Structure formats: C-alpha cells, structure tokens
Amino acid sequence: MGRTAAAVLPALILAGGCAQLPTRADQVRQEQRIASLEERLLRLERAVDEARAAPAQSSVPDYGPRLAQLGQQVEALDEQVRQLLGRVDALERRPQPKGDTSRVEALERRVQEIATRLAAVEARPAAPAPPAGKQAEPPSPRPAATPAPPAAPKATAQDLYDRAYALYKQGKHAEAREAFQRFISLYPKTDLTDNAYFWIGESYYDQRQYEKAILAYDKVVQEFPRGDKVPSALLKQAFAFDAIGDPVDARILLKKLLREHPSSEQAAIARRKLEMLGE
C-alpha cells in the first residue's frame, strides 16, 4: 500500500543541488491520487453507516466478517492518507507553491471519524445465539379446531426497497434492478423513489454499462430536482460520460453540480475532476 501511495506523489528533481518544481504530470498524478482517496472514503463512510443501521444479530452470517473487512479498509486507507500527508508536507517545506496539505489533513480527520464510528458498531452487543447442542423442543400439535392464522401483512414500501438494496449489495445487479423497478412501479412518488433510480444507475455503472447508467441518473435529476440524491446523480452521470469518451458533457454536468450544489461533498470531487479534464 505504501509503495502505491508514494508512487503517485510528485518527485523533486535535483539539478546542480537546486530543487526544481514538480512537473505538470507529477501534479496531475497527485490530484488523481487524492481524488481517488476522496471517492474511496465516501464509499467507506456509506458502508460504515449501513453497518451502523444493521441489527447486531448473531443470526446474520456475514455480520462479523463484514465488520472485520471494514476495519481492514479503514486501517489501509488511514495508512495511505498518513503517507500522503507526510510526503505532501515534506514537499511544501521546499521552495515551491502551496500544495494539498489541507485536503489530505481533512481526509485524515474523516478516516479517524470513520474508525470511531466503526468501533462503536463493533462494541454493540450481539444477540445471544442458542446454546450449542441444545435442540429446540418440537412444537405441540395444533388442535384441529384452531382457526387459521391471519394472513401476513403486505410488504411496505420500505420492505420492498430494502430487499432491492440488499440484492444490489450482494452484487446481484440484474435482480436488484428488477426489484427496484418493481418498487418504482408501485411507489412512483415517495422519498425513496429517487434513491431507487440512483441505485439502478449504480448497478449499471458497476457493470460498465455507462449509457444505461446515464439514463437512470438523469431520472433522478429530472424527476426529483429537489431530492437529496441529485448531487450524487450529477457527479456519477459526469463520470459515466467521461468513461464513454465524452468529456464535453462531463464538464457541463460537473459545472452544473458546482453551480447548483456548491457546498456539497460531491462538489469537492467535481472540482478535482474538472481539473483533471483540463478546466
């Protein structure tokens, strides 16, 4: 991990004992590395928040391993951010323009916040598992005269959405899209509908079906302009356009994001992306 983080930092070229400024290519590589860490950090924050919302039950088979995996990701990201901070700080003590120390310090603070939140999740008591070797007593036979139990209640909008999202998290992209589409057909105007369109877009994006992802993200922007998923949809739509070789539309969307949502977390990433696209 350390070698990867160090490799993307600008080098100081010594000529006759005099340090020269990093080249433009060096600066671009550093920008790309910091932007990549910022994007990974957003995904990690979302994963930790989902772990906090999940019930701490011993009956969930991958609950413990999932927390352990998140802990390893936090430690790895923390190591990379610390190495990046040390290298940027060392460079800024040389006679050259100010760099990205404040951005990397902000990354470090966010990593520590994630570690604290994850520790709180790990400290939650798990639901007690049944004693080993103890078998449940067989149920007593139902009397013939007992009336049939009432029908199970219909699934709520939240239930349907949660099932679709669970499929997405399991990597079952096609099934997740079908489930989200079913949710949208039943609940076309709820607080979760824009989220459903966004996750449809994400499932396509994960499979590199960028054109279809663009259409799904556009549903969020056009039909739910006041929804909280609009900044994320604009950002990922721009990334998708860039992925298919259309930097012009990517720049248009990034500028729209900066203009309409300048203080959002996505706006910070949009600024870095615009710099990479030559703006």
Could you explain how this protein is built, in words?
The two termini are 30 Å apart. Residues 1-19 and 91-99 have low confidence and may be disordered. The chain has helices at 2-7, 24-53, 63-92, 101-122, 157-169, 173-186, 193-206, 210-223, 230-243, 247-260, 265-276; strands at 14-15, 18-19. The protein has two domains: 2-122, Methane Monooxygenase Hydroxylase, Chain G, domain 1 (Up-down Bundle); 157-276, Tetratricopeptide repeat domain (Serine Threonine Protein Phosphatase 5, Tetratricopeptide repeat), CATH 1.25.40. It is an all-alpha fold and 279 residues long. Helix 3 (63-92) packs antiparallel against helix 4 (101-122). The radius of gyration is 24 Å and the shape is globular. The protein has a two-stranded antiparallel sheet. The chain contains eleven helices and two strands.
Keyword list:
single chain, 279 residues, mainly alpha, Methane Monooxygenase Hydroxylase, Chain G, domain 1, Serine Threonine Protein Phosphatase 5, Tetratricopeptide repeat, 2 domains, two-stranded antiparallel ribbon, 2 strands
SSE layout:
Blueprint: H1 2-7, E1 14-15, E2 18-19, H2 24-53, H3 63-92, H4 101-122, H5 157-169, H6 173-186, H7 193-206, H8 210-223, H9 230-243, H10 247-260, H11 265-276
Antiparallel strand pairs: 1-2
Helix pairs in contact: 2-3, 2-4, 2-11, 3-4, 5-6, 6-7, 7-8, 7-9, 8-9, 9-10, 10-11
Class based on secondary structure composition and strand pairing = mainly alpha
Alpha carbon gyration radius: 24 Å
Low-confidence stretches: 1-19, 91-99
- What's the β-strand tally? 2
**Residues in helix, %:** 55-70%
The helix tally amounts to 11
How would you sum up the major sheet? Answer: 2 strands, antiparallel
Shape: globular
Under CATH, the topology of the largest domain can be stated as Methane Monooxygenase Hydroxylase, Chain G, domain 1
In the CATH classification, which architecture of the largest domain applies? Up-down Bundle
What is the H/E order? HEEHHHHHHHHHH
* Integer count of domains: 2
* Alpha-carbon distance between the two ends: 30 Å
CATH class of the largest domain: Mainly Alpha
Q: Give the neighbour order of strands across the main sheet.
A: 1-2
Mean pLDDT: 75
